[in-house]
Amino acid sequence: MRIQIEISPDQAGVRLDQIVADSQSRISRSRVASLISQGFILVNHACKRPGYKVKPNDLIEGDFPSPDQQDTKNILPESIPLDILYEDEHILMIDKPPGLVVHPGAGNNSGTLVNALLGHHPAFREKDWDRERPGIVHRLDKDTSGLMVIAKKLNALEFLQKEFKQRRVEKHYLALARGENIPESGVIERPIGRHPYHRKRMAVLDENGRYAKTCFSVLKRFSSGCLMDVRLYTGRTHQIRVHFYDQGMPLFGDCIYRERRFRKKDPIVPRQMLHSWTLSFRHPYSGVRLYFEAPMPEDFKTTLLHLSDACLYD
Questions:
Q1: How far apart are CA 176 and CA 124, in angstroms?
Q2: Cα 72 to Cα 134: distance, rounded to the nearest angstrom
């Protein structure tokens, strides 16, 4: 469904997601915000944040996914095994395997983490949740493995989302990056936004980008790259992948954010080598600071071993 809204003077200063949601009776504001973030809805032909304050004569245009893509009634509980590291009545901590999609999307209403959550506990089937992402506090890409914290109550969700937004959560990743002259450590502060031509990709944008900060240090060096400890201070979509590509050290196995000639699948590196390694945050009920660590997955170990062996023959 196509929308087109021209902002009048009396609408100036209102949030973009609110303007769009008010024009659509069957779509929630949270769903609108998600569509804006995914680039389905543009302002003056450019991507904006859901919280962008509209201005007089702004032209809002976009395409909502078809009704069958928006239908969440078909998102059913499924018996999908979860690697649970911790669980109480407020939160669930899992180690997500690579290849598991977090929440349903267009034409993909099964086999996701959300389906697994719906099948795991009745708390995720309560009507007050956003049916598409019950309990989802933050997200990992399909092929990124590692730690995710899930809220089991709405007040826990609100608390944890605020903690992430206020940057009180400490997040570290393991990454295998390709490059011969990678510095021992560094800080990358480059704004990130939706790619101007490829809607499903992100890019470093000096204009219309959102502040993003990534810190890294080398744990182990190989002839063709490094094992890195990466700390995220912000949580932009594809942040590590985009920042590392921009700095000339793309992740091994990443077929999107790397030079075109290297975008073919490598049988030795089955996915982008990125793992959510440690996560530290305050418990939403007790306030006690928790710390979790997810062990390196087997495919990561295999790739690491391959790189180590390659060094012996250089």
A1: 35
A2: 12
pLDDT digits (tens, 9 = 90+) for 58-87: 999 987 765 444 445 578 899 999 999 999
Topology of domain 170-312 in CATH is: Pseudouridine synthase (3.30.2350)
Give the helix/strand (H/E) hosting 312.
helix 298-312
Instruction: For Cα atoms 85, 89, 95, give the angle at the middle one, nearest 5 degrees.
Output: 20
Half-sphere exposure of 14 (CA within 13 A, CB side): 17
Instruction: Report yes or no: 284 and 159 within 8 Å, Cβ to Cβ.
Output: yes
Measure the CA–CA gap between 290 and 9, rounded to whole angstroms: 48
Which of the following is catalytic: 17, 58, 141, 299?
Answer: 141
| 141 is known as an active-site residue | yes
In the chain, what are the domain boundaries? 2-66, 84-165, 170-312
Report pTM: 0.77
